[in-house]
Amino acid sequence: MMRNLIAILRGITPPEAVDVCAAIIDAGITTVEVPLNSPDPLDSIAAMARAFGDRAVIGAGTVLTTHAVGQVADAGGRLIVSPDCNPAVIAATKARGLASWPGVFTPTEAFAALAAGADGLKIFPASMMGVSGLKALRAVLPAGTQVYAVGGAGPENFVDWATVADGYGIGSALYAPGDSAAQVAEKAAKIVAAYDEAHG
């Protein structure tokens, strides 16, 4: 089963990346991003892509420049997630054949991202927009636009967000620096169960 969940491993280090990633995939989450403000993020991405590139989509988050897009692609990443809407980053992502998920918060940003070629939209911070805000935004977005809620959407409120969001990016509820693979596995299982209950 393909679940619309992106595991955000902010702060992960290369020595633990493969074991933590394995725990997440085994729990049923098959999209994983390493934010570029983590320690040696390209090394972690490369290690996870080598180990699990045939079972999961591995990529980077907090991608702010076109140069970084190239670095992630060269490391084997297939996903670019940003906190902002930068048309140049989106264009560079698509030029390398990667999936583009820019962060947006306003209708202007959302339409600019789609015009630049984004595969989907990351509503960030979702806690500030809220379910009602995203419902209003969706009313004007093109039909079929994929929208993920990030920052405030989690297992405790998937049921509420499921009425307006296609998926979620999950960070601190899944992984905090220093967590063991076993701890992450336990948290991932709870997140997957809550997702399955909310999305049927």
TrEMBL record:
Pfam families: Aldolase (PF01081). Transmembrane segments: none annotated. Pathway: Carbohydrate acid metabolism. InterPro entries: Aldlse_KDPG_KHG, Aldolase_TIM. GO terms for molecular function: 2-dehydro-3-deoxy-6-phosphogalactonate aldolase activity. Keywords: Carbohydrate metabolism, Lyase. Gene3D superfamilies: Aldolase class I. It is an enzyme of class 4 (lyase). Its EC number is 4.1.2.21. Belongs to the KHG/KDPG aldolase family. Homotrimer. This is 2-dehydro-3-deoxy-6-phosphogalactonate aldolase. It comes from Pseudaestuariivita atlantica. The lineage of its organism: Bacteria, Pseudomonadati, Pseudomonadota, Alphaproteobacteria, Rhodobacterales.
